[in-house]
Automatic annotation (TrEMBL):
This is Hexosyltransferase. PANTHER family: BETA-1,3-GALACTOSYLTRANSFERASE 8-RELATED (PTHR11214:SF275), BETA-1,3-N-ACETYLGLUCOSAMINYLTRANSFERASE (PTHR11214). It comes from Rosa chinensis. Belongs to the glycosyltransferase 31 family. It is an enzyme of class 2 (transferase). Residues 30-53 are annotated as: Disordered. GO terms for cellular component: Golgi membrane.
Length: 419
């Protein structure tokens, strides 16, 4: 019979299918005909306990070995997982703990730095003060290496043109010559005319003061150029120079046209000698004069508020006294103490922010006769007398003797003191 002709493509597919079928049959036959070790391993069995079985046999050893390997793998995997989890948890804890520790250390370091800054700042201030003190002491040691003990140093502010005023003071309330030295040694009361130098060193004015000093030996010379508008600077230098020479309990500044009773001054100061920071004088609070051209004009009036305001309380400039601690304060802080136009305002400004006791002592600003005379007759001798309208005794050269005779305490008052 003539059949249908089979295509080449079909023949190719049939050949490939036959090949795979043959391969599968061959493999299955070998598997099913293979022999294995018996399950119980009996040695009495023929062929050493091994016989052919129609099905493939897996030994107990292989089963147990496979189970052990599987269990071990699972345990290993679990151990690795647990280890990784523990490590991760520990790492997180360590990271948290490390963060807390770092913040704590940062805080401690910050506090340590702040404490160190405060210590350095304190040491710098102490060093600066020590250097300034050493400089002042080294300059003063050229004249007097050891400070002299005293109860009070009285500096009489004077000028080159005031020779007649100085003469009137020496002839009235101020001891001279041997009595001046005796007063200093026995009572601890030091009195000096305070003056600086002229704008032309070694000139006629300076030579005149040197000649007067050689005659009376009662001057305290300052390294300062004299001038009316430099009174605040002169005041700073006076206290600085005085405390470098004399170790006194009080330091007084008085003008050369004011009458002073030495005994009453010493008695008044002695009542306050146990107090550390004393500022004594006739306290006032005058208006701040902002108009240009007037006497006592204050160029820095704007610092005191609106126009028409008054100054803070301060002692009038004719006479005032400060205790040793305040003089030391001025000496230590000399370069940074601000100077206003008026000397008494400047002094008051240096103390306004300190723990200072302001004592308003009205006996330090008595009017001249008949007021001071009337008070003396009543037993209340004035410490100082002058005329307010003149900011001192009017015509003091001519009137100082009259005021002294009317308001003076008597020549023996200061010598009877027990200081």
């Amino acid at each position: 019979m003539r059949g249908k002709q089979v295509s080449g493509k079909a023949m190719l597919i049939l050949c490939i299918a036959s090949f795979f079928a043959g391969s599968l049959f061959s493999t299955t036959s070998r598997t099913w005909s293979s022999t294995s070790t018996s399950l119980d391993g009996d040695d009495d069995q023929p062929n050493g306990g091994r016989e052919a079985h129609p099905f493939p046999i897996v030994s107990k050893y292989h089963i147990h070995n496979h189970l052990d390997e599987t269990a071990n793998s699972k345990r290993a995997a679990a151990l690795v997982t647990q280890t990784n989890c523990n490590d991760d948890h520990k790492r997180k804890l360590d990271e948290g703990k490390s963060g807390d520790d770092i913040m704590g250390e940062v805080a401690k370091t910050h506090q340590a730095i702040k404490s160190l800054d405060r210590t350095i700042s304190t040491l710098e201030m102490e060093l600066a003060a020590a250097r300034a003190s050493n400089q002042r002491m080294s300059s003063s040691s050229k004249f007097n290496p050891k400070r002299q003990k005293a109860f009070v140093v009285i500096g009489i502010n004077t000028a080159f043109s005031s020779k007649k005023r100085r003469k009137s003071v020496r002839e009235t309330w101020m001891p001279t010559g041997g009595e001046l030295n005796k007063l200093e040694k026995e009572k601890g009361i030091v009195i000096r005319f305070v003056i600086g130098r002229s704008a032309t060193p070694g000139g006629l004015l300076d030579r005149a003061i040197e000649a007067e000093e050689a005659e009376h030996n009662d001057f305290l010379r300052l390294n300062h150029v004299e001038g009316y508008h430099e009174l605040s600077t002169k005041t700073r230098l006076y206290f600085t120079t005085a405390i470098s020479i004399w170790d006194a309990e009080f330091y007084v500044k008085v003008d050369d046209d004011v009458h002073l009773n030495l005994g009453m001054l010493a008695t008044t100061l002695a009542r306050h000698r146990s107090k550390p920071r004393i500022y004594i004088g006739c306290m006032k609070s005058g208006p701040v004069l902002y108009q240009k051209g007037v006497k006592y004009h204050e160029p820095e009036y704007w610092k005191f508020g609106e126009e028409g305001n008054k100054y803070f309380r301060h002692a009038t400039g004719q006479i005032y006294a400060i205790s040793k601690d305040l003089a030391a304060y001025i000496s230590t802080n000399l370069p940074i103490l601000h100077r206003y136009a008026n000397e008494d305002v400047s002094l008051g400004s240096w103390f306004i922010g300190l723990e200072v006791e302001h004592i308003d002592e009205r006996s330090m600003c008595c009017a001249t006769s008949p007021d001071c005379e009337r008070m003396a007759q009543a037993g209340n001798v004035c410490v100082a007398s002058f005329d307010w309208k003149c900011s001192g005794i009017c015509n003091s050269v001519e009137r100082m003797k009259d005021v002294h005779n009317s308001c003076g305490e008597g020549t023996g008052a200061v010598w009877n003191l027990d200081l």
